[in-house]
Structure formats: structure tokens, C-alpha cells
Design goal:
By secondary structure, this protein is an alpha/beta fold. The chain folds into three domains: 78 residues, Winged helix-like DNA-binding domain superfamily/Winged helix DNA-binding domain (Arc Repressor Mutant, subunit A, Orthogonal Bundle); 109 residues, 3-Layer(aba) Sandwich (D-Maltodextrin-Binding Protein, domain 2), CATH 3.40.190; 104 residues, Periplasmic binding protein-like II (D-Maltodextrin-Binding Protein, domain 2), CATH 3.40.190. It has a five-stranded mixed sheet with strand order 4-3-5-13-6, with helices on both faces. The radius of gyration is 22 Å and the shape is elongated. The N and C termini lie far apart (49 Å).
Length: 306
């Protein structure tokens, strides 16, 4: 078994097609197919089911892929660690729920690596995509939150993708709205006061459920609701529709602008506040890269200053 064969398996699993994988790997489809058959013969399992529609992992293949990802990630870290410093190419990816502080911390991280070449990526995306990106090795770190409502469901996904969660901060819900919103001058805002205005949330696609929502108190019944796919649209909806969202209160004004305010959510007997634990996920037993360590430090520093 070779590192090259492991890489081929990872690419095929991601593409779901031998032909597409061959194009990405710049080899012929027959050569790729023969290489995988040789690997399957060596390890004495069938990794892929083949059909006219493409390929899919067998049960044994799914187990093989889980360990293959870990091996390949460690190989990449080893290669990165011992490349000549002058010629080192830093690679690093973060997937995050729509948090401005996560993006701001990423910016500060990139500034610290004055190298000839680097390949960095940040993806503000849906909750399930954050988990999948880290699980499949697309990103080294994922930033999201756990609550009493979603923790069991998300932990199931963490176990499925062999991930661990490390908390950064605990916070209660805040109402995030435009400074010209009719409620913007209040010290606290109750659930009943919000009912006349649209509750804004980030869409979660086909996997949508209250357990994957990026907003705290997502299980509540809102009379008016609007979903958006990105942070810029969300901010425009706040301004144009007097919309609001429920968040952690940790906001980067530099990223979002100073037109918006966070105001504590006021609980009552029927609508209690809820704790949210913001943190990050990564692969189990994963050793953070140098860039990853700096990014986590930047996250902690930003939260500490907030």
C-alpha cells in the first residue's frame, strides 16, 4: 500500500466517479481502476461498489476511508514539517458557521505568515458542511456551537466523522439588530417584543433542522421568519426589514460595520434563555499544524477582548 494509492481512494470517494477522479489526478481511467483493484487485492477487501452510475463505498470501504484520511493527513503534516523552511508552502483551511469573529481571527492568522507562498482558505458555510469539511480533511478546524438542544445530534455527527469538540466560551443569547431598529435603544429585549419583527436565520439546505441551526433558541415558534445564505444578505435584511437574529453577542464591528447592535435577550417564565458553548472541532488525535495553533490562539484572544 502506498501514499499515492491512499490519495487515489480519497479522491474517488469525494468524486463518486472513477472518470471524474481520473481527470483530477491527471491519469487515465483504466490506470486508476487497475491501481484500486491492486490495492483491494492487497488489503483483501472491496473498497468500492462499481455501477454504471458511478462508485460508492462498501461498508468495509467506509471503514478503510476513515483510517486512510488520518494516515494521509499525518503524511501531509510530516511533509510540511520537514520541507526546507525557505521553500515551505503553508496550507490551512477553516470551515465555520457565519461568525464574523472567526473570519477576523483568520485574517490576523494569515498576516502572521510572511512566506513566499501559502494556500489558505476560510469557508463560512452550513453547520453540516462545517462538520463534513473537517471530517473529510478539507479543513483542519471547524468553528461552531453546542447547546442543550443540539449537543446530542451534533455529537452523533462528531462520532461518525471521528471528531472532537473543544469549547472556547460559554455565552447566553443576544438580539442582533440594526441601530435604527425600533427596539435598538432598549437595555434588554423579550421574546414577546420581537414577535412583530422577522426573525432571520441562515439556511441549512437539505439537512435543515432546529438541531443544525446556527441561531440559539431556534426551536421557538416565530410568527415571521426569513432565511439567508450569507452574512452580507443577513445584514441587509436587518437594515431593510427591521429583522433580527439571536446570536452569541461576539461580533466583529470591523467585519460587520458599526451600524448594528447586540442587546441581551430577556427571558421570562415561558421563554427561557439558553447557554451556547462556542468552540472548534478537529479530527481525533490530530496534531494541530503551526498555522492551526496560531488560529486557535487568535480566536481565544479575540473572544477574551470581547
Amino acid at each position: 500500500m502506498t501514499i499515492q494509492q491512499i490519495k487515489y481512494v480519497l479522491v474517488i470517494a469525494r468524486c463518486g466517479s472513477m472518470n471524474k477522479a481520473a481527470e483530477l489526478l491527471f491519469i487515465s481511467q483504466p490506470a486508476l481502476s487497475n491501481t484500486i483493484k491492486e490495492l483491494e487485492s492487497e488489503v483483501d477487501i472491496t473498497i468500492f461498489n462499481r455501477s454504471k452510475r458511478g462508485v460508492s463505498l462498501t461498508n468495509e470501504g467506509t471503514k478503510f476511508l476513515k483510517y486512510a484520511r488520518q494516515v494521509y493527513q499525518q503524511y501531509e503534516l510530516l511533509e510540511e514539517q520537514f520541507l526546507d523552511e525557505k521553500n515551505r508552502v503553508y496550507t490551512f483551511g477553516v470551515s465555520t458557521q457565519h461568525y464574523s469573529f472567526a473570519t477576523k481571527s483568520f485574517i490576523e492568522t494569515v498576516k502572521k505568515f510572511d512566506t513566499q507562498e501559502y494556500h489558505f482558505a476560510i469557508r463560512e458555510t452550513k453547520t453540516f458542511n462545517v462538520i463534513r469539511d473537517v471530517g473529510e480533511g478539507r479543513s483542519e478546524i471547524g468553528v461552531l456551537f453546542l447547546s442543550k438542544l443540539n449537543s446530542k445530534v451534533l455529537q452523533h455527527y462528531f462520532d461518525e466523522y471521528d471528531l472532537v469538540f473543544d469549547g472556547l466560551v460559554d455565552t447566553s443569547a443576544y438580539v442582533y439588530l440594526h441601530r435604527k431598529h425600533p427596539l435598538a435603544n432598549k437595555d434588554k429585549i423579550s421574546f414577546d417584543e420581537l414577535q412583530d419583527y422577522p426573525c432571520l436565520s441562515f439556511e441549512q439546505g437539505r439537512e435543515s433542522s432546529v438541531y443544525l441551526a446556527e441561531e440559539i433558541l431556534s426551536e421557538k415558534a416565530y410568527l415571521h421568519s426569513v432565511t439567508a445564505s450569507d452574512r452580507a444578505t443577513m445584514l441587509n435584511l436587518m437594515k431593510g426589514l427591521n429583522g433580527y437574529t439571536l446570536c452569541s453577542g461576539i461580533i466583529s464591528e470591523e467585519s460587520n460595520g458599526d451600524e448594528y447592535k447586540v442587546i441581551p435577550f430577556s427571558e421570562d417564565g415561558e421563554h427561557m434563555n439558553t447557554n451556547m458553548k462556542i468552540g472548534y472541532i478537529m479530527k481525533k488525535n490530530h496534531i494541530l499544524s503551526e498555522v492551526g495553533e496560531v488560529y486557535i490562539k487568535e480566536l481565544k484572544n479575540y473572544i477574551k477582548r470581547s
